[in-house]
Fold this protein.
Amino acid sequence: MDSFWYFGKNAVPLFTNDMKELELNWYAVKVFFNKVFELEEKLESMGLESYIAVQKVQLKGIRHLQAVKKLAQAEQEGHSQDRRFFQEGAILYERVPLVKSLLFVRADANRILEVEALLKPVADASSAKGFIYKTTDWKTFAVIPAKQMEMFRLVTGAGLGGLEFFADDDFTRFKQGDRVRVIDGPLRGAEGYIKRIRKNRRLLVSIEGVIAVATSYIPPQNLQIVPEA
């Protein structure tokens, strides 16, 4: 059923059945001054989904006491919860970015313009908060294929050690091997290429034009070759 608003005697459609919702896509954002968690909070308040690849580090001893004191002080002063920290029972953890200053946001074509406006400098260039990655011709924002984002989140969100990150123009110099899928273990379902990096064969998953992540060694019996599309 179509919806209308009325201007005088004329009915103007607000939304028709022929209209389609704008598609949501993932975009990469470079965040200046390592303020990824501040931007994450702002995007959440705007109703936008975001993702930061983080390592969960349990705080102990003096670091635990310092964090507890800082959180208590922020609560007393009415500040929002520091998104770097979270609790599971009595255990306090810190979220440590695996890639400094990199955040991903999911938005439609209109709302990504809101994100761009949020990042733009207010007075001069030094006040810019970051930028959204663009295509190689710098004309449009670079849309991250859903499959690439899914694989990147699977690998970086598995809580495994031994991950190594490369800029897009850096990892291409490493020798590429078969395209494979992990069929067992904590990375089951991940797809990427076997690459020889410093004499070691490792699974590499990439977001083209942005970042690539190499896992530690995965036993050959846990890998299945995937035909190229």
Q: What stands out?
A: Helices lie at 36-45, 61-76, 111-119, 146-156, 168-171.
